[in-house]
Every structure is written in C-alpha cells, then in structure tokens.
Specification:
The structure is a single chain. The chain has 312 residues and is of the alpha+beta class. 62% of the residues lie in helices and 12% in strands. A 4-stranded mixed beta sheet has the order 1-4-3-2. The longest helix has 31 residues, at 27-57. The structure holds zinc ion.
Amino acid sequence: MSMAIRGPSGDHDQHDHQHHGDHQHGEGAKNASRAFGWSIVLNSLLTGVQLAIGLACGSLALVGDALHNLGDVVGLGLGWGAERLSQRPPRGRFTYGFGRSTHMASLLNGLLIFSAGAVVVVEGLQRLWQPVPLQSGPVAVAALAGIVVNLLSARLFGHGHHHDLNQRAAVLHLLSDAAVSLAVLTSALVVGATGWLRLDGLTAIGVGIAVMASAWGLLREAIAANLDAIPAGVDPEALRQALASLPGVLEVRDLHVWGVSSSRTALTVHLRRRLDATLPSRAFLTLARQRLAQFGIAHSTLEVEEGEAGAD
Ligand SMILES: [Zn+2]
C-alpha cells in the first residue's frame, strides 16, 4: 500500500499505464489447446475404465490411480475453463478482468486431489487388516492402459514450447503418472503370481501418498498465488536491481508484483529519479518497460517522483 510522500516536485508525478495483450496467440497456443483437449478426452476414458475395473476386480491400488487421474481431468477442465474466463475483457466491477479465476481453479483442484489421496491412504490401511480378493489380470491391463495414455499425453504436450514452464510441468506430471501406473501394474502381476493380497493395499497407500505429495506442491503454489505472492518465475531481487539501475534512479519503493492470472504478471512501483536526470520522462518509462518485459511483466503501473536523494 502506497502512502507516497511527495518529493519537492510532487506535481510532476507521472502515472502511466500500459496494457499489452497476449502476443502469443499463434500456432503454439492452438497446439497447446489441442493437446489440452486430447489429454482431457484420453484421461476421462482412462479414468472410467480404471475405476470400473478397480471396483469390479477389488484393486484399491487401481482405484487410487483412477481417482488421481480423475483429479487430473477435473484439474485440466478447471484450468481450461479458467483460462477461457481469464481472456474475457474487464467489465463493470471486475476491473481486473477474470484472470484470478485461474488461481481459484488451482486451489480447488489442489484440495480435491489432496482429499482423494487421503481417502486412498485410509482405505489402504484398512485393506492391510482385511485383504480383499483380487482379479489381477484385468487390473494389470487397466494399469498398462494408464501407462500408455500418460506417455501418449506427455508426447502431445512435449510438441509445444519447451521453455514454457507450465507445459514442462505438465509433461513431468504425466511422466510421473505413468510411473504410478507402472507401480500398480507391477503390484498386480506380483499379486497374480504369489497371491499376496496385502500388496495391493500397500501399493494403494504408496499411490495415495504420491498423490497427496504432488497435490501439496500444487496447493502451496495455489495458496501463494491467491495471496498475491510474486509468481515463481520472477526473481524479486533481480527485478529490484533492474529497476534501481535505471538511469537517474535514486530509490525503488512500494514494489508490488503479482499474478493477475496464472499467465499474466502485473507490477506497481514508485521510483524516485534525480531532478537533473537528462533522460526525458517518456524515454525513461519506455526503458523501464523494456526492463520489465524481460521479466515477463507486461502490465505495469509506475509512479515516478523527481527529487533529491533521501528527500522525503
Ligand atoms: Zn496426475
């Protein structure tokens, strides 16, 4: 919050505002949205099959895998919906637009997946006391399907921009999901060969814990975003340095950086400039914006005060 104490030439304060649309709505975005769509369809089918076979054949480990995939589908759907919503222009009372719905979507998704993981762990503990008969053949096939679908989805996403953090996270996630399905497959084969029924409960507990752990990371980021934390990709110290090193800048104050949506970062800051700074205000602001753009910040509000060093 800024209660700016004006410098000697406070009436020269410059308020400026700039909006940059998203420039990257070309082929990359289209590919990403297609990968998104396919991933939702494939994962929905997979979830249905795994849930049905897991319940019918008595494998909690498979049900756990299915619940996790269900969480992924819901997350993809929520993310997709929020992304659409966030592209609507601001209107009426919603002067920020609807970008924040992406933060709300990830919070909701994190909570859902975390609860699903917890349920599977509790159920798994019960199965250790009371093992349930298991038909391992269909369970192994459904787990194999999980591996195939997740590897296929990872390939779809992998075709996009490799430097996109979100996309890389998505690929890593899909690969780790394939690993979970691999654990379920292995467990089913071992149960089939040895008849050791408790292994299914043990595997389910492992799956549940893995699900809770990944949801925990998601939850932490979502809570941070909802608290207007600086987005994970922006280094606050480097940013402050970049602003402080602009020509004539004496002081950087009230620096605020937050995610307007999961893909857009906004900034407000007060800069005190030397009175005799030779660079004209326009050129100074342009230069400042170029620096900010290097941090992926396209939406900024700069207040520039001219004054002596330390003059408050
Ligand atoms: Zn997953």
